[in-house]
Write a structure and sequence with these properties.
There is one protein chain. This protein is mainly beta and 499 residues long. It has a domain at 388-499. It has helices spanning 2-18, 25-30, 95-103, 162-166, 294-297, 352-357, 359-363, 413-416, and strands spanning 33-39, 45-51, 58-63, 68-73, 75-80, 86-91, 115-120, 126-129, 132-136, 144-149, 182-188, 194-205, 211-216, 225-231, 236-243, 247-253, 259-265, 277-282, 289-292, 302-303, 310-311, 317-323, 366-372, 379-381, 389-391, 400-405, 420-427, 433-441, 444-446, 452-457, 462-467, 472-475. Mean pLDDT is 89; it is low at 154-159 and 163-168.
Length: 499
């Protein structure tokens, strides 16, 4: 009897010991997660963020041997310079402090601003710059950093000066802000030398060439808006465009920095139909030249301020978006005369809630187009209302592009869950379309030289190719298992991916 009782107690003890501990919220608070690991370009250092629930994150830097060199709390958005000599990051305020200020209803403009941290990897020296709104470093070269400063909070003087009040009111000083722009500082990371440019609304480094471009609303209220390009190798600053009250968007270099493109709205009035224009500038030119406006296209489309502007890798093509003119509002009607009603039917391609969510995107929809940067600089529109979505291949170098249209199958996707599309290819040189696929649900791409369309057909669970010129469709994996065998939802299985 004693033996049996002892054995029973032993089994109970072992059972209790073998039970795993149940995780709760307190354990989650201690849980550390490594986020955004980054290796320096030369492979000499590694940087990552250590995040712990809702608490402040820590930025850590180690050498190639795993030795800890540097850590900083509240640091985020870390990056190495291309020469692996510096690490840059933003330092935010304590989360507890931010939460307490929000509870006190502190205004957004009075909230603590981020600080820029510049850590020298060779010496271990840390430089901190307060009130930084944003910063950028070159992707494929090093030596400089550019950052914008937040507007400084200035307390109003409540004591009136009677002498001043009687005198003529002076013109208001231009204020730093979203509309006028923020002051831009360009700093030499080696020498520490800084140059400041006022009221900058946008700025960008070239990817490989040592160039920087920025747009300014003007040094003061009397100055013109302008676009400047800075060549670091030649220490040359060029004013490539200038206009009164102009708004600039989509500033972008080609990889080498030899070409620059941007969109200009130089109309100072409040007309609803904005007269945007596309400009191009090349190193050696005194001023940028206008390539496209509303009269160039012949179909009332005009350059988009929101669609991405970029160059092909070989720098022979400039891609941009052509936007439809907006629906004009009758400004003569009063609020009582305006009919404010929304009508929705059951058979619309998109649900009413989705339409509301995508309303802003619909109003700025643009069709991908290209300018061939030869002597004639010809314009070719690639996408249109029939095929609104586009995909470029070979980094924009190819003479073919892939187009698609999901609209014919949008309604049935509400119950099938499959996002089918019709596909066509377009000749980049002349804009001619050729339909290649009908109702394909799955990822479809164009080969680098534009010879094949290839992809995965969800309904058939096969990979396929389609030879564009020969119009030959071929199942590559028919009868073979190249789909997710663990897929357990009421839909077609997805592929494992492709290289």
């Amino acid at each position: 009897m004693k033996t049996a009782l002892s054995a029973l107690l032993l089994l109970v003890t072992l059972s209790l010991t073998a039970q795993k501990k149940v995780l709760d919220h307190h354990d989650f608070e201690k849980w550390n997660t490594i986020k955004k690991p980054t290796i320096s370009p030369k492979g000499t250092h590694v940087m990552y963020s250590l995040e712990q629930g809702e608490k402040d994150q820590f930025l850590h830097i180690k050498d190639a041997a795993g030795k800890a060199l540097f850590s900083y709390d509240r640091a985020k958005n870390g990056a190495f310079t291309y020469d692996s000599n510096f690490a840059v990051f933003s330092i935010g305020a304590w989360k507890d402090s931010i939460l307490a200020m929000k509870r006190r209803k502190v205004k957004k403009k009075d909230m603590p601003k981020d600080t820029l941290g510049i850590y020298t990897l060779t010496t271990g020296q840390l430089q901190k710059i307060a009130n930084v709104k944003s910063y950028k470093i070159p992707e494929k070269w090093a030596g400089y950093i550019a950052y914008q400063l937040e507007a400084e909070s200035v307390k109003k003087d409540t004591v009136k000066d009677t002498a001043t009040s009687k005198s003529k009111k002076k013109k208001k000083a231009k204020k730093v802000g979203k509309k006028n722009g923020y002051h831009l500082v360009v700093q030499d990371l080696t020498t520490g030398q800084k140059d400041t440019f006022k009221f900058v609304t946008a700025y960008r480094f070239a990817k490989k060439g040592k160039h920087l471009v920025w747009a300014t609303s003007g040094e003061d209220n009397e100055s013109n808006a302008a676009v400047y390009a800075l060549n670091f190798d030649k220490a040359k600053l060029t004013k490539v465009h200038e206009a009164k009250k102009a708004i600039y968007s989509q500033l972008n270099f080609s990889e080498s920095g030899n070409h620059l493109g941007f969109v200009v709205d130089a109309d100072s009035t409040k007309v609803q139909l904005r007269p945007r224009e596309l400009f191009h500038w090349e190193q050696g030119m005194e001023k940028a030249e206008k390539l496209v406006d509303a009269t160039t296209t012949g179909n009332d489309l005009r350059p988009s301020a929101t669609a991405e502007l970029h160059f092909s890798k070989d720098e022979t093509k400039l891609y941009f978006g052509l936007a439809k003119p907006p629906v004009l509002k009758d400004t003569l009607l009063t609020s009582e005369e305006i009919v404010n009603v929304e009508v929705w039917t059951y058979d619309e391609p998109r649900l009413y809630t989705v339409q509301e969510l995508q309303l802003k995107n619909d109003t700025v929809q643009a069709y991908t187009s290209v300018i061939h940067l030869g002597k004639k600089k010809t314009l070719t529109q690639l996408a249109d209302a029939t095929y609104p979505d586009s995909y470029l291949t070979d980094k924009g170098n190819a003479n073919m592009a892939l187009l698609s249209n999901p609209t014919p199958y949008a309604l049935e996707s509400q119950w099938t869950g499959e996002r089918a599309r019709d596909y066509a290819v377009v000749d980049v040189t002349n804009g001619n379309h050729k339909k290649v696929l009908t109702k394909v649900a799955g990822r479809v791409r164009l080969s680098p030289k534009g010879t094949y369309v290839f992809g995965y057909n969800n309904a058939e669970s096969t990979w396929f190719t389609h030879h564009i010129e020969k119009e030959q469709y071929k199942d590559l994996t028919k009868g073979q298992v190249f789909y997710d065998e663990l897929h357990d939802s009421p839909s077609f299985p997805s592929p494992y991916g492709f290289a």
